[in-house]
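User: Predict the structure for this protein chain, please.
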Amino acid sequence: EVRLVLSGGDLVQPGGSLKLSCAASGFAFSRTALSWVRQAPGKGLEWLSTIFNYATDRPDYAESVKGRFTISTDIAKNTLYLQMNNLKPDDTAVYYCAKMDMKRPGLYDFWGQGSQVIVSS
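Assistant: Here is the predicted structure, written as structure tokens:
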């Protein structure tokens, strides 16, 4: 059974930092790609970043988070991370990790449950 379990969402002040974790199980973590996606209140899904665990390519980021957010993985722990620095109120959203369907690149076949991040003073 594929599972993606998020943790780390919280209330944080503008300019603060937060690190989200996504613990994965039930699939070959080292041979897949994973992404972070968020949904702000009243808005659609926004892709943030993707990491390819089987490749050495540098991850790409959405312009809205480039230079502030960093995606990473710990293969030994089967865990995906999102380090978020210099957070802004516009970063307030529910954050999801998603596993890419390796038979259909660009599409996702499993999602985590979501983790709320609120950036407010």
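The mean pLDDT is 95.
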